[in-house]
Amino acid sequence: ESIALQKESDQEIRKMAEEEILRLTPAVEAARVTLIRSILPPNPDDSRNAMVEIRAGTGGEEASLFASELLRAYTRFAEKKGWKYELLSLSHSDLGGVREAVLLIEGEGATALLRHEAGVHRVQRVPATEGSGRVHTSAATVAVLPEAEEAEVVLRPEDLDMTVARASGAGGQHVNKTESAVQIIHKPSGLMVYCADERSQLRNRQKALRVLRSRLLDLTRAKERELRADTRKNMIGSGDRSERIRTYNFPQNRITDHRIDLTVHGIEQVLAGDLDELVEALYEADLRTRAEAITRSST
């Protein structure tokens, strides 16, 4: 009715109709998303814990500092959502940035909302150490894996090469004098996991095995996807680590997600954990894409 009233010649009525449409649009969109969710087959991974891996990419120390900011953004986002999180692995750069971090997030909807964070995050800004004021570009990669259950991935002792060493912190100083750091290599796949966050060798071993299981599950699924040659082409981007998904432009205080052409402002707020607008837009876009794919396949 409001749409029809937009064609009225009376300017006041048209204005009221436009205001009513603006007021109702969010509710209509929310109802549409709910309807789409109800007809789509559930993704079994949505109920799993999310394992978020962050690595510094190109850009040296600036990339490590950006990786540490992404780590903070995800932990703050988890706190705001009421999710639990645990740092499974953390490797610092010499100046206190993050070379690599593995974060386990436990909570309803964690994997569903965070899976589209996977990919290359690019940052453009003037580093604190840059005297000439030039804008530098660096990057960090994010991978989001559903945590594997022990029964899903069987790890045979003969397939594992485990070594222990003394843990060291930024700059190489020793965190403790016991051999608590654990490195595990899965010989059949070549995957390697290193964990040194806990003072207990047993705890580090347990954490490393959790990470290894999830990576092996992801590797197995990737091979299955290659054989089927589907899923990733139908999703929003592939989540591949070579894919640039988002740019954080500090001089313009602007974040652009290249997959859905979404631009938001307020970088500091986003890096402080205000990720809702980005992750929810990607989640809803994924729902629409999946629904369209089902519609096409049924016609």
Describe, in short, the structure shown:
This protein has 299 residues and is of the alpha+beta class. It has helices spanning 2-5, 11-39, 60-81, 110-114, 201-228, 267-271, 276-298; strands at 50-56, 84-92, 98-106, 119-125, 136-146, 160-165, 181-186, 191-195, 244-249, 254-257, 262-265. The protein has three domains: 2-39, no CATH class; 44-149 and 236-298, Alpha-Beta Plaits; 157-226, 2-Layer Sandwich (Double Stranded RNA Binding Domain), CATH 3.30.160.
Q: How would you characterize this protein structure?
A:
The protein starts with a helix and ends with a helix. The model is unreliable at 1-6, 170-174 and 231-242 (pLDDT under 50). It has 299 residues and is of the alpha+beta class. Helix content is 39%, strand content 25%. It folds into three domains: 2-39, no CATH class; 44-149 and 236-298, 2-Layer Sandwich (Alpha-Beta Plaits), CATH 3.30.70; 157-226, Double Stranded RNA Binding Domain (2-Layer Sandwich).
